[in-house]
């Protein structure tokens, strides 16, 4: 399965389907981890009482290049797993390692076992200073970082406390940097409500439902606004659920009924007629309501 994920790494929808299938098989798929991930998707064998897991590869992270990934893997293979964020900053040296790459690794969850995401982000400048001074000491042949300021000596540094990152923001970071939600989809917590309203998973939309009234739900991923020939606004909305996405057509009369529903990142429920005109499935919206 890891080979299939790697082969399809450029197809986000395909990866989402494979991940969903893996989860149904009882194989958790987890975000990248600096102590376990390699460049590509990796199967992590579980112990006797733990199941196998699949880790995202470090090269899956936006803004993190191959050179940085190799530097992380080499440092880990030379001296073992990183024991703390200070240990990581002290041992991973590369000219391409910068604030953007470190920020991306933190936000996607690659350091979750070494620190809370928002706390690490709040201390990012201190972490990077420690890394820079570590590289200087290494180039100078020093065995310890005696030149560091008192608050970040070789023994590490104290992280300033920060409020934990809200779950919705963590998930949005994963989507931004990995291309999809990994630890959980924002829609998951509303599963019971969606079932009660008979909302269909988007992957079940097919020709047999053509011209039928259906109910679906998802997160608004994109909005294109156009003006009709009569000068009225209408929308083409991209709606995504746990595994796939579809297009929702919002005609002027429907848009004027509830215009505030149509905003990116909102979770909505849509009732409408399924159409496959022009060869692609789309839903002609008749009613919409905001869930979150």
Strands, helices and their partners?
Layout: H1 2-7, H2 12-24, E1 29-30, E2 42-44, E3 53-55, H3 66-79, H4 85-91, H5 99-108, H6 117-122, H7 124-139, H8 167-178, H9 191-196, E4 213-227, E5 233-240, E6 245-250, H10 252-257, E7 267-275, E8 282-290
Parallel strand pairs: 1-3, 6-8
Antiparallel strand pairs: 2-3, 4-5, 4-7, 5-6, 7-8
Question: How widely separated are the two ends?
Answer: 34 Å
Count of individual domains: 2
Please bin the fraction of helical residues.
Answer: 25-40%
The total count of strands amounts to 8
Provide the residue-averaged pLDDT: 89
Helix and strand composition category: alpha+beta
Overview of this protein structure:
The two termini are 34 Å apart. The protein folds into two domains: 2-178, no CATH class; 188-290, Beta Barrel (OB fold (Dihydrolipoamide Acetyltransferase, E2P)), CATH 2.40.50.140. Helices cover 33% and strands 19% of the residues. It is elongated and about 75 Å long. Residues 144-154 have low confidence and may be disordered. It has helices at 2-7, 12-24, 66-79, 85-91, 99-108, 117-122, 124-139, 167-178, 191-196, 252-257; strands spanning 29-30, 42-44, 53-55, 213-227, 233-240, 245-250, 267-275, 282-290. Helix 4 packs parallel to helix 7. It is built from ten helices and eight strands. With 292 residues, it is α+β, with helices and mostly antiparallel strands. The strands form two sheets. Strands 4-5-6-8-7 form a five-stranded mixed beta barrel. A three-stranded mixed sheet has the order 1-3-2.
């Amino acid at each position: 399965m890891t080979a299939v994920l790697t082969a399809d790494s450029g197809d986000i929808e395909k990866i989402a389907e494979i991940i969903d299938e893996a989860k149904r098989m009882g194989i958790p798929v987890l975000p990248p981890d600096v102590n376990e991930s390699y460049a590509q998707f990796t199967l992590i064998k579980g112990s006797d009482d733990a199941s196998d897991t699949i880790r995202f590869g470090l090269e899956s992270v936006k803004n993190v290049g191959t050179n940085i990934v190799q530097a992380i893997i080499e440092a880990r293979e030379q001296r073992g797993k990183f024991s703390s964020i200070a240990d990581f900053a002290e041992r991973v040296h590369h000219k391409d390692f910068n604030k953007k790459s470190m920020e991306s690794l933190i936000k996607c969850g690659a350091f979750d076992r070494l620190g809370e995401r928002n706390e690490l982000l709040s201390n990012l400048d201190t972490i990077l200073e420690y890394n820079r001074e570590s590289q200087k000491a290494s180039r100078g042949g020093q065995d310890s970082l005696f030149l560091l300021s008192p608050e970040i000596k070789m023994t590490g540094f104290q992280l300033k406390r920060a409020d934990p990152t809200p779950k919705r923001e963590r998930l949005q970071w994963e989507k931004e940097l990995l291309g999809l939600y990994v630890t959980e989809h924002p829609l998951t917590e509303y599963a019971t409500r969606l079932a009660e309203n008979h909302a269909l998973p988007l992957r079940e939309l097919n020709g047999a439902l053509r011209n039928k009234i259906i109910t679906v739900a998802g997160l608004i991923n994109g909005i294109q606004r156009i003006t009709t020939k009569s000068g009225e606004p209408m929308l083409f909305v991209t709606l995504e659920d746990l595994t796939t996405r579809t297009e929702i057509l919002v005609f002027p009369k429907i848009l004027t009924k509830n215009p505030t529903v149509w905003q990116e990142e909102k979770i909505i429920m849509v009732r409408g007629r399924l159409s496959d005109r022009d060869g692609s499935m789309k839903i002609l919206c008749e009613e919409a309501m905001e869930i979150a």
